[in-house]
Amino acid sequence: MGPCDCVLSRKTSAPWGLEGASKACFDEISQAWRLAHIPLAKARLRQWLQAGYVAEDQWYPTARGTPHGGIISPALANRTLDGLERV
Question: Distance (Å, rounded) from C-alpha 29 to C-alpha 24?
Answer without folding.
Answer: 8
